[in-house]
Design brief:
The chain has a single domain, classed as Serine Threonine Protein Phosphatase 5, Tetratricopeptide repeat (Alpha Horseshoe), CATH 1.25.40.10. 51% of the residues lie in helices and 0% in strands. Helix 7 runs antiparallel to helix 8, helix 8 packs antiparallel against helix 9 and helix 9 packs antiparallel against helix 10. The longest helix is centred in the middle third of the chain and has 14 residues. The two termini are 19 Å apart.
Length: 240
């Protein structure tokens, strides 16, 4: 499953940025990386701008077409010293692909701020980079609980389930929030991926069309043709 480009930030605002996608490794289905794709100027999602050294599995759940780092940087202003400094350092290490150092900095954040939505989001990204999906699922569920208006929590939750080979649950939990976030193309795109993996190509087509209605076809097509979850549909997608 991959996240598609969105026209607005996963959390707040309508800003976009270019974030490099990662080269696909020999990974299992729903795998980890993809070729470099430039995001459109002016745009999911829930990610920071990670460098090419970062673990490729961060691709989809990072919602690479949004500008989450703006939210992350805002969090640094919301958190008070020294927590904001530790958050900043953790974010920087994660952007460099160094998860152990990122975890070490997050561990220094005071207990009072461990449940801050942005801290949870960053925690989830570190766990995802480490492919610790059981722990990542628990964090994403907590993010959904405390900040249900943030689409990234819902996307992270389903993505974690998908990586745990619980794709039907991933789809079922994401379906109810489609109308809650109507301008967020990552959700219908990921639903297309889940449906395709479950063998329901007709449903996958409908969701892919919905994603294209939100985000331009060129961007969706480029990402979809590099997405192994949609491999059964590559031929027809190539003709879009």
């Amino acid at each position: 499953m991959r996240v598609a480009p969105d026209k607005r930030c996963a959390v707040r605002g309508n800003e976009v940025m270019n974030i490099p996608l990662f080269p696909r490794s020999a990974a299992p289905a729903c795998g980890l990386a993809r070729p470099t794709v430039e995001r459109p100027e002016g745009h999911p999602g829930s990610a920071v701008g990670f460098c090419a050294q970062m673990h490729p599995c961060l691709l989809r759940y990072l919602l690479p077409f949004a500008k989450p780092e703006k939210r992350m940087r805002t969090a640094m202003r919301e958190l008070k010293p020294p927590d904001n400094h530790h958050f900043n350092a953790a974010l920087g290490w994660l952007e460099l692909g160094n998860q152990p150092e990122a975890k070490a900095e997050l561990a220094k954040i005071s207990a009072a701020h461990r449940s801050h939505p942005n801290v949870l989001e960053l925690t989830w990204r570190i766990l995802a980079a480490e492919r610790k999906w059981v722990e990542a699922l628990a964090v994403s569920r907590e993010l959904v609980r405390i900040e249900p208006q943030n689409p990234s929590g819902w996307v992270h939750q389903s993505y974690s389930l998908h990586e745990l080979q619980r794709t039907k649950e991933a789809l079922d939990l994401l379906l109810p929030v489609v109308d809650t976030f109507p301008g967020f193309s990552t959700i219908p795109y990921n639903l297309a991926c889940y449906a395709c993996r479950l063998g329901d190509l007709e449903q996958a087509r409908r969701w892919l069309v919905k994603a294209i209605e939100i985000q331009n076809k060129k961007d969706i097509k480029k990402v979809a043709l590099a997405d192994p979850d949609l491999e059964p549909m590559w031929e027809e997608i190539s003709k879009l």
